[in-house]
């Protein structure tokens, strides 16, 4: 969200303070990327910006609106294309359970389609956590929102993997403390193994 010139100054300072630094990464939204010209992104790449961490959360415009993300799938696809063109790696984060119990799985296919089009270098799944002060936590206390359980969260990831068609290689991770099952692999090569791990866990209820 900072100006390109300020980012360049900060990156120069980082290299001065940490000469052993091999790559600089940053968090970004799709709007942050789309606001910058390709020329500015190239300047950042040449200065050492190697990767951007982008929270897509879901590939459903309906859910993006519900969680007040203020961005649409089209924004993410446009940002992803710009980053591919300038050679900045992308790490995309997704969240299971955004729609609540009994609802989230239906959106997993849409998410798989969007991520497949983005074809990021990394993709990871987190599990929805209800933070203090959030509207969603208040909805939970008032009975308007019911979180998805472990089985449903895992099934959502399974459906995502089952419909992933990206060319890859894409490093897949689901190893955050919030996750019910630790998963790691490279897509599309490890799709069958990862889906098998999920099915085995769901069937044995080992979560």
Your description of this structure?
With 207 residues, this protein is α/β, with parallel strands linked by helices. Helix content is 47%, strand content 18%. A 6-stranded mixed β-sheet has the order 1-2-3-4-5-6. The longest helix is centred in the N-terminal third of the chain and has 14 residues, at 4-17. It is globular and about 50 Å long.
Any chance you could write out the topology, listing elements then pairs?
Blueprint: H1 4-17, E1 24-28, H2 30-35, H3 38-46, E2 49-57, H4 61-66, H5 73-86, E3 89-96, H6 105-118, E4 122-127, H7 135-141, H8 150-162, E5 170-174, E6 183-187, H9 191-204
Parallel strand pairs: 1-2, 2-3, 3-4, 4-5
Antiparallel strand pairs: 5-6
Helix pairs in contact: 3-5, 6-8, 8-9
For this entry, give a set of tags.
207 residues, alpha/beta, six-stranded mixed beta sheet, 9 helices, 47% helix, 18% strand
Question: What value does the average pLDDT take?
Answer: 95
Give the C-alpha Rg. 18 Å
Q: Which percent band covers the strand fraction?
A: 15-25%
Q: Kindly state the percentage of residues in helix.
A: 40-55%
The number of helical elements comes to: 9
Estimated structural class: alpha/beta
Low-confidence stretches: none
What does the overall shape look like? globular
Q: Helices and strands, in N-to-C order?
A: HEHHEHHEHEHHEEH
> Biggest sheet: strands side by side, in what order?
1-2-3-4-5-6
Distance between the termini: 38 Å
Per DSSP E runs of 2 or more residues, the count of β-strands stands at: 6
Biggest sheet features: 6 strands, mixed
